[in-house]
Amino acid sequence: MKTVLSISGINKTYQSGFAALKDISLDIHTGEIFALLGQNGAGKTTLINIICGIVKASSGVVKVFGKDNVHEYREARSEVGLVPQELSTDSFETVWNTVTFSRGLFGKPKNPAYIEQILKQLSLWEKRNNKIMTLSGGMKRRVMIAKALSHEPKILFLDEPTAGVDVSLRKDMWELVRGLQKTGVTIILTTHYIEEAEEMADRIGVIRQGKLILVEPKVELMQQLGKKQLTLQLHQPISQLPQSLLLDGVSLSGDGLLITYTYDSQSKNIGIAKILEILASENITFKDLHTSQSSLEDIFVSLVNEKELTV
């Protein structure tokens, strides 16, 4: 798979001595959706701003389609579109004019048909002659996306793109993201809506205190770090677990009516069938059971809260 963005040994230390990023290295592949997750202040926006040439790294190299984003800034930046976290638009300009102007900033020839296509995809066509100051917060966010797409970038950064956007607008935006991916656009996003990353991303990166602590395909990440759980609701309460059930991951609720078995899907464990076999041998009957698996949010919370992580 072709690498479109290569990040090598990026560090960022401010004059105050605060180290915002610590030796970040990462390759992004063509056409993928990469979700960068981390708590506020973890370094997500700093990393994006360095890649886009807005902030200068203390050390390290960023290459966009093989072009160094410092020494070949114009060529590298022309391939990148950025939707920043903060809304920043010309309030007194119309939607059409501000998006068209953004295209011109990258030296692209006028293309009214393409601008029309973007505005229609983002449900902005009916607002094209409206001044931006008259739009809602959600519509202003759409304008930011339209501006980022105006010069036809091959890589699109979305920094908290759905922050403050209502549910219907959020769904529309993600439909647009899917459509862009189908055309070969590579998308890197940060989001607080982890369920969106779980649904949309091909790969997940987790950044904590300026360090990239994990990068995995989403499916593999959930298989490796996800926990599965079996819950059995008993017909009659029991005072304690029998000796045969005093196993790792098996617990009894305080009222004696629920037996819970939590296990790692990748490790060696006795399995659900064995648990049910033991229950039968102990004459413990149950009236209901259900299984569940930890979500990406569960995994994310456990990762950022760990003091040490060995990958």
What is the strand and helix layout of this fold?
Elements: E1 3-13, E2 19-29, E3 33-37, H1 44-51, E4 59-64, E5 67-68, H2 73-77, E6 80-83, H3 95-105, H4 112-121, H5 137-149, E7 155-159, H6 167-182, E8 186-190, H7 194-200, E9 203-208, E10 211-217, H8 218-225, E11 227-234, E12 250-252, E13 258-264, H9 272-281, E14 286-293, H10 296-305
Helix pairs in contact: 3-5
Keywords: ATP-binding, Cell inner membrane, Cell membrane, Membrane, Nucleotide-binding, Transport
InterPro entries: AAA+_ATPase (IPR003593), ABC_transporter-like_ATP-bd (IPR003439), ABC_transporter-like_CS (IPR017871), ABC_transporter_ATP-binding (IPR050763), P-loop_NTPase (IPR027417)
Protein name: ABC-2 type transport system ATP-binding protein
Terminal residue distance: 23 Å
Low-confidence stretches: 307-311
Secondary structure: number of strands = 14
Q: What is CATH's topology name of the largest domain?
A: Rossmann fold
Indicate the overall shape. elongated
Largest sheet: 6 strands, mixed
Number of domains as seen in the coordinates: 3
Beta strand % = 25-35%
Percentage of residues assigned to helices: 25-40%
InterPro entries: AAA+_ATPase, ABC_transporter-like_ATP-bd, ABC_transporter-like_CS, ABC_transporter_ATP-binding, P-loop_NTPase
GO molecular function, one term: ATP binding
Domain ABC transporter: 5-234
Protein name: ABC-2 type transport system ATP-binding protein
Describe the model.
The protein is α/β, with parallel strands linked by helices and 311 residues long. The protein folds into 3 domains: 3-79 and 154-222, 3-Layer(aba) Sandwich (Rossmann fold), CATH 3.40.50.300; 95-148; 227-293, 2-Layer Sandwich (Alpha-Beta Plaits), CATH 3.30.70. The protein is 32% helix and 28% strand. It has 10 helices and 14 strands. The strands form 3 sheets. A 6-stranded mixed β-sheet has the order 6-7-8-3-9-10, with helices on both faces. Helix 3 runs parallel beside helix 5. It starts with a strand and ends in a 6-residue tail after the last helix. It holds the Pfam family ABC_tran. Keywords: ATP-binding, Cell inner membrane, Cell membrane, Membrane, Nucleotide-binding, Transport. This is ABC-2 type transport system ATP-binding protein. GO terms for molecular function: ATP binding; ATP hydrolysis activity.
